[in-house]
Amino acid sequence: MKVTKLPWAGIRIEINDTSIVIDPLYHFPSKFGQPHEEFFPLNDFGRIDAVLITHHHPDHFDQPAIAQFYGEEIPVYLPSESLKFINSSSLKQIHGVELGQLIKIGSAEVIPAFSMDGFGDPQVSWIVRGNGHQVIHCGDTLWHGHWWNIKSTYGPFDIACLPVNAAIVEFRGDPPSGQPISLSPEQAVSAAFVLEAKTLIPIHYKAIHYPPIYRQTPDLIDRLQSSAMTRGLELSILDTKESLVLE
């Protein structure tokens, strides 16, 4: 199994001759100003067999880019509850999924598991299995009480891809809470520890920091490293296009 980092929250997973991407992004949302990392055409990362989407927000579900670079017939899987938020799309194979539903894609098995969106919108984590390994990708989840259930049902994991930017936002028109809408570095390490993940790959950071609309938590890399060391957890900080290979 080979896991490659894409910008923002994106991950590509290769299992034998099967390749899957989760939350690929190319069209950076303009409301967040200029990105703080480089974005690449999605086909720079290679061919794929399917796209897994954690939730419908445009920084996770870039429909035009998926159609442009992977073709309109590429299978796309996302939470069934998210379908009502998709008004029109050129994508021809958008499939809604339910928690615990087992889907076979070539050499891989994928399963949607619980996740908690920071705005209360539908979201899933994606578990990808193959060749005796498994990875979990949790979108932009908050801390929640289902980590233990996920571990007992599906764990342990070789890799947990978890958000770490503890974003505080002020752009929905409602009174701002001042509370993070995604995991902090310390919470991500704790979640990976509970999930019994061997390695944490941090995602969902760097690209967006546009105060006061969207604020990334400070010193996140140092905090990740310190917290991971305390927990005895392996931390793999990948730049875009870097990979981790599981033998």
TrEMBL record:
Protein name: Metallo-beta-lactamase domain-containing protein
Substrates-to-products reaction catalysed: 3',5'-cyclic CMP + H2O = CMP + H(+); 3',5'-cyclic UMP + H2O = UMP + H(+)
Matches recorded under InterPro entries: Metallo-B-lactamas (IPR001279), RibonucZ/Hydroxyglut_hydro (IPR036866), UPF0173_UPF0282_UlaG_hydrolase (IPR050114)
Protein role: Counteracts the endogenous Pycsar antiviral defense system. Phosphodiesterase that enables metal-dependent hydrolysis of host cyclic nucleotide Pycsar defense signals such as cCMP and cUMP.
Sequence ranges assigned to domain Metallo-beta-lactamase in this UniProt record: 19-205
Pfam families according to UniProt: Lactamase_B_2
Species for this entry: Paenibacillus pectinilyticus
